[in-house]
Amino acid sequence: MDSEMEGFELESPPSPPTSYLSMESEEDQPVGADKEHDFAPLIVDLERAASPETKRSKSECCSVQPREGAFFPGNGVNLERAASPETKQSESVQPREGAFFPGQGPEATHQSFSSSENMMLELERMIPEKEKNLCPMGIPFIFKSILKTLQELKKSELSQFKKLMRRTYPQYFENQMEDFDVLDVVDMIMERCGKVIAIKVTVHILKCMKMNDLATSLAVETRRIMLQHELKERLKMKYETIFEGIAKHGCHCYLSRIHAHVHMTEGGNGEVNDEHEVRQSEIASGRQSTPEVALKPSDLFEPSFVSERCIRTVMTRGIAGIGLTVAVQKFIVDWIEEKANQDIHFVFPIPFGEQTCVKMQEQSLTDYLTIFHPEIGAMDFIDSPDCKVLFIFDALEEYRHTLSFQKNGIWTDPKAPTSVDMLVTNLIKGNLLPNCLLWITTRTAASRLIPADYVNLLTQVHGFTDLQKEQYLRKKSCDENQARRIISRVKTSRTLHIMSHIPTFSWMLATVFAEQNFADDQEESPVTMTELFTHYSLLQLNMMHSKYFRDNADTPEWIVRDRDFLMKLGKLGFQLLEKGHKEFSLKNLKDCNLDVEEAIVHSGLCTEVFSLHTESQPRVFCFVHLSIQEYLAAFYVYMSFRVKHKSLLDQTRVFPPTKLFKGPTLLDLLTSAVDKSLRSQDGHLDLFLRFLLGLSVDSIQRLFRTFIPIPESSTHCMEETARYIRKKIEENASPDRCQNLRHCLTELEG
Length: 750
Known about the structure:
Helix content is 42%, strand content 9%. By secondary structure, the chain is an alpha/beta fold. The protein has a 7-stranded mixed β-sheet with strand order 8-7-13-9-12-11-10, covered by helices on one side. Strands 14-16-15 form a 3-stranded antiparallel β-sheet. The chain has a two-stranded antiparallel ribbon with strand order 1-2.
């Protein structure tokens, strides 16, 4: 604590980097209202001791006129002076200019009492029956702690204290304070400094006066607020900036500059957005629509909401890239900046991914917390009833250790060492720190790792609404013209409009479009939908390598194992597409040699769907969106042609590479795909066709160069295919089919 007193921070909104002031500095600094002065109405009962150190002459007290803007904690400070000649009721007492009393606003600050009798009656009314049980984190407690400490000073010592204050911190205490008594001094410190700096200033001045016992006593008494301050400073450095997509050196930005709220609702069975550009949404039999209850992350632990619903543990789930971690980050930053959830004293984010890196030796809960938050030291008051704590366990799907809820017994002592598994499971069960709050976020498929009995509230994040999507794209764009082009492109493409509700997809959209060179008069982007989905698949694979396999994911290139993995997923997607199915089972995964953990939890391309009777039914999965399934199916068909020289659209013809003159050509593959799409009655192959054509163009081939040789230019083949499609447009009378064929021509032009 001693080293901490050598300097203090002055936070100056809005949120550029925090400026630091040395406790020894003699330079003037601008004095501004500290945001810590905003607090809920509270009453502090302060009693002046009848001592020579705090008495004023009768002439000074006949008309009390304290300085302008006097600080009263909670907008009401109850002052009770000991009976003395200085406070006779017969004398006129005028309240200080700017002093706030309960029930009065700033407009009443100049109101005066007509007589001292009225003043004393008012003061009597404001004195609470009990002075104890003040929250040790609140302004009233700090006010009284500093006051109690300074009341130990003699008159000469108080005078020296005031002189040192003015000399050391002229930027805060520029006015004369010779006639200030101890209550006025504390009032001035709290008004000018705020609660944290007030403690640091008082402790530092006492140490300068060689009154180390008093300084230590105050530091110990106010230790919680100082630990909270240190925790907030560390969390601010970590969470006020963000990496989008994959973390790269120098690519972080401030959360406030790009953050857009996401749509969160109560409940949810993990279903994905089933809107589609071509195919109509199919409502599963027996599914009943229920009204959604929209929530904000800051609502989850509001006292009224928590008490009404008896909430201790909240689980929030969603598909990959839907905005779970960013929602957590925004919650933490809002708490740090005192915008929400100020009844929570300590917030401890402990991401599951970081827990995986911790050695699993036995340790106590307080020791375990110190690994992630070393600034809190030995937090021996964590189990106190008046200490409200929130633990945030983010990204459950990244946890690589076991969670043995059935095997582990009961553990209740936060100071005794045990296994990490025992600590985490008993925290979630509620045996350890039953009064704390927990927030767990997870991809949908991993949520089954936590038994439903231990979750009081289940919420689901659905990504961006249309308005939130536009707000985000405008923030990400370098200028208004670029933003207008991107938003226009998203609105005119039904598939992009649907997919961009996923924040990661919107980020990828903005990033890819920003790299394109637009002519001044060019309204449309040269980027095709196939290129966007290829970048998105690459992004998800790189994130999978980075999160779960700890690979270097800086390079935006494909490798052979990515190709093989996507071909397995694509085979599954193609089989489902031909059958007209969207959901699949564990057996379907095994038939395609896919590991359920890698495909469903890690890849970010699939998810699990939960029903109301999940425990009694087989597990059901689906792709995060039908368009992802169609893209991967097209990828599988195209790669089977390129790697195995096999046309899956014409199973009767399989030719070895040595007989290319008899084997299927790329033109054969593409024209047969056009014919097969047109034969479909419901258009379920339309988007598949667009992706297959887009994967065949030269610009996409360059993205695959790391695992297949770049073929000779396909320009001639693309021209012949385009001629074939135009012929089909002339022959086909269906407006919907003709519109899709025109989209196909756009893909070929990429």
